[in-house]
Amino acid sequence: MPLKQLAIVSPASGMITILHPTSGASIIFMRGYNLLTSSATGFASLQIREFYGASPGLRFHTLSGIHSVSPELQSSFRQTVQSAPAVGHCLRRHVVPGLTDANDRTVGSDNAISRTVWTNVAVDVAGIVVALFLTKAYLRRRTRNGLPLPPGPKPLPVIGNLLDVPRKQPAWLVYEQWGKKYGDIMSITVLGQTIVILNSPTIAKELLDKRGAKYSDRPEIPMIKLMHLDVANIALQRYSKEWRMTRRIADHSLRPSASITYRPMQRKNAHRFLRLLLKDPEEFVQHIRHFTTAIAMSVAYGYEIADYNDRYVVIAEEAVSMGAASFYPGAWLVNVIPSLNHLPGWLPGMGFKKYARDCAKLVNEMIEAPFAYVKERMRDGTALPSLSQENLDTCQSEEEERMIKYVASSIYSAGADTSGSTLSTMFLALARFPEAQKRAQAEIDAIVGRGRLPDYDDREKMPYIEALCQELLRWRLASPMGTVRTSMEDDVYDGYFIPKGSYILANAWAMLHDPTTYPDPDAFKPERFLNADGKFVEDPILASHFGFGRRICPGRHLALATLWITVTSVLAVFNVTKAKDENGKEVDVGADYSDSLVSFPLPFKCAIVPRDARSMELIGASETSVVEGQVA
Length: 632
Hints:
With 632 residues, the chain is of the alpha+beta class. The protein folds into two domains: 123-212 and 483-518 and 539-546, Uridine Diphospho-n-acetylenolpyruvylglucosamine Reductase, domain 2 (2-Layer Sandwich), CATH 3.30.43.20; 222-482 and 547-620, CATH 1.10.630.10. Helices cover 47% and strands 8% of the residues. It is built from 23 helices and twelve strands. The protein has a four-stranded mixed beta sheet with strand order 1-2-3-4, sandwiched between helices. It has a four-stranded mixed beta sheet with strand order 5-6-10-7. Strand 3 (26-30), helix 1 and strand 4 form a beta-alpha-beta unit. Helix 14 runs antiparallel to helix 18, helix 16 (351-379) crosses helix 18 (398-432) and helix 18 runs parallel beside helix 22 (556-573). Residues 1-135, 137-142 and 626-632 have low confidence and may be disordered. Keywords: Heme, Iron, Metal-binding, Monooxygenase, Oxidoreductase. Pathway: Secondary metabolite biosynthesis. Heme binds at residue 553. One of its GO terms (molecular function) is heme binding.
């Protein structure tokens, strides 16, 4: 028989949560804890929602010291205390200042969550926690029809696998190790939120591709919405009619045949990149950033950025940087307790509101300003080819124009960082693996010669370069875990239950470092993608680098073409080696990467020098290249 009322007392958070006996509303009372700076309390509220269903759970939030308690809440509290004899003793002793107890007496702070209370009701508390855990297990069994969640580390009562969440190592490495014990589909539950991890491309393809109708949503992250980043980057949008409209525009504009339109621009910016490297090779990371941003702005708007402090770039970089710090559910407490957004901004701890407003202002300018630039250029007939220009030419409604605007802003916000990560990996790999570099240069010299720079017409004739590009994507992924998805309905896979609302993580790192598919996976070996005849073999699993199903990156063809022209151009004219210290000793190139949504190599040094005098001439002559790409 289901319980009619239930209470949880958390010593860590000073929180009481009860289920109203008549309305069924979850009511939460908090005291003695800094709610606004603690993720633990917010996670606990997620757990309560998981017990009794999704919204409108947690009907009442009383935040001690934040606002006065409503009479309705006081009445609900009294009614619950009076009708819950099993926990009444405990509830009468754990109240928030400003509420009244069952006898309508105002309760002072001396009686609230005190040492005396914990001494007197220790047995009550233990019993409540046990009852909560057993009730949770009962409700889950009933919901699953007896089917278990995918295997994983054993959860603790109440907090689940909170202590198992990776902290000291990147999550993708931890989940890769877990897979050896639990299998290719695993799960953890963190304070009520089920997280399913997929380590197999077969399972990922089945769920995220074939069953895409169930697995194409994104979680609701309040700060992302408050900052308007869900429209500035369509990859973060929830699965909706609006997302489907923007996705159709992106797929059409960035399809392989359409991407060819951008090749002259990609080539031009690759040559500009060479000149920047020649001028100041030690700043190669900054040059990469400039290069990937230039590509994104050209594709989206036909806009050529300035060499330094470009107005649009500064705005976009600041907006994306602020958003990146707010992406994860636990980054701000409002991400786990969305109702905090309804509190007045002047209250203590509401700093997230100003942060969101400041970011939203930047995001809006990032979206609007370059788009207005395109429209102005189209009016005076000087617009360069771009995604915005192409789609505005055939635009038939204000709604469609708005969707075009969102897709254009996504080119930068979704693509510049990932491309930058891969190009940084290129320099790291070339410095660490000189034999791969020499073989690639030999192929370029044999096909292209030393009298010109490589061009896209050479691509099919250089299988080793193609293999090297593919190995760059496999060896160190730009986004090893991809972007989290959310299941839109209950599902069952291989006898395992996947609840609606589960977070789904596809561990592309584990998929592309499986030793059964990629022997010696940590080694950089482009030849693994060549057959016995030396011909390039495309790896179907490598698509996981760009995602799965309906959410796969629409700009992947453009990204691959950019990577190819950059790799060949750099190798044609530069040698990349380990840097040397003041004593002439080689400085080791590290192998560590940032633990972030887009993972970058940690700062490292390398030497980038022209191969010879002829290389320097080619770099200088590239500035006079005509549109067709031939060096004058």
